[in-house]
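User: I'm writing a short methods note and want a consistent example. For ACT domain-containing protein, I'll paste the sequence; you return only the structure tokens, no commentary, since I'll be parsing the reply automatically.
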Amino acid sequence: MNKTFFLRVIYRNAANLHKITSSVESVKGVKIRHLNFISKGKSFVGVIAFEASQLIDFEKIMTLIRRNRDISEVERIMDSSLCC
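Assistant:
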């Protein structure tokens, strides 16, 4: 059974959104369900909702996204009503 996880991501305007989404989908069995990004000055703020079967898949995704130096902040959102 898949569980939906939510991440709030803040990244520089020069960063490539495709690089972030491809990092998420590179983990086997993970599918992006929702993207919501808006421009806030010199950076973008947004939420990625994705399905993963295990918590370890979530940890892999967090590690992959944090490796990108253009990402300012990545945090897990526990309450899905805050993000969509």
